Amino acid sequence: MPPVSPLPVTRASARVRPVGALWRLRGYLRPFRVQMAVMFAAAFGAVTAEICIPLLTKAVVDGAIAHGARQLLIPLALAAVGLGMAEALLNLIRRWIQADAVASMGTTCTPTCSGCRPRSTTTGSPASCCRGPRPTCRRSGGSPGSA
Asked: One digit per residue, pLDDT tens: the chain, 147 residues?
């Protein structure tokens, strides 16, 4: 994979917008944009399912029970269980992708590195995955001496 290069952000533009800190992260998050899109879609689907379950309960109480339509109880109960299972599955997918993205961020170097070695060949220092004059590693957040 080619090295990730964050877009330069001046101090003035970071001061103007209250989301300046998040805006500076976009260069580092670029390799993870597909995972982020899937996580947001899964989170949106899980919240939608979570909101629909009380609405189904309302339909059971106000419709099937109030009008004595017992034939609607089984389908509505199955729909509520299905929505609960869908919510759990979507949350599992979101958390799985999030954990994978976070784990891979801890072993990749910032764009200022001249190259990375696999984690198995490192000397144990988080910043030792980088080579170069002043390497910085995402895991340490600074120079090799600051870990």
From this structure: 556 666 665 565 545 567 787 788 888 888 888 998 999 999 999 999 999 999 999 988 898 888 888 888 899 999 999 999 999 999 999 999 989 878 876 665 555 554 454 444 444 444 444 444 444 444 444 444 444
How far apart, in Å, are the Cα atoms of 36 and each of 50, 77, 98, 104, 145?
Answer: 21, 33, 8, 14, 32
Return the biggest CA–CA distance within the chain: 78
CA distance 88 to 102: 21
CA distances (Å), 119 to each of 104, 109, 126, in order? 11, 11, 9
Residue 116 three-state SS: strand
State the residue for tokens 């689907």: 45
